[in-house]
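Escalation from tier 1.

The customer reports that the assembly of three entities below gives different structure tokens on two consecutive runs. Tier 1 could not reproduce it. I'm attaching the input and our single run for tier 2 to review.
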Amino acid sequence: MTDPESPYAAIYAVVQRIPPGRVCTYGRVAALAGLPGQARLVGYALHALLRQSVVPWWRVINRSGRISNVYAADEQRARLLAEGVDVDETYLIDLDRFLWAGDDVE
DNA sequence: TGTGTGACAAGCC
DNA sequence: AGGCTTGCCACAC
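Tier 1 run:
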């Protein structure tokens, strides 16, 4: 996040738009950020946010509705539970209830 | 400068 | 339905 023109800025902006108690998938965030199919970039960008709590990176999960984060999966699950998101012991999340389509706020 | 890898997604078998 | 393969971009060595 060195240049505002960098795709990372768009990713961060989208993640910040995710309402509390709601989660979003990498692909969804990527699409909203203007990077269709480039979900890997989202994961890579969020990887650098682990130190910065200015962005709710914990609200971003994979397409399977699970936390693939091997670096802070425990912390992410705790944060989601604090947000009101029901996270299973196997890091499974109900996308049908907590998935944010992005149409809540424009 | 070039090769390999990564918090993924979609397609195919 | 579930598992395997390919594509994509940016960054580390």
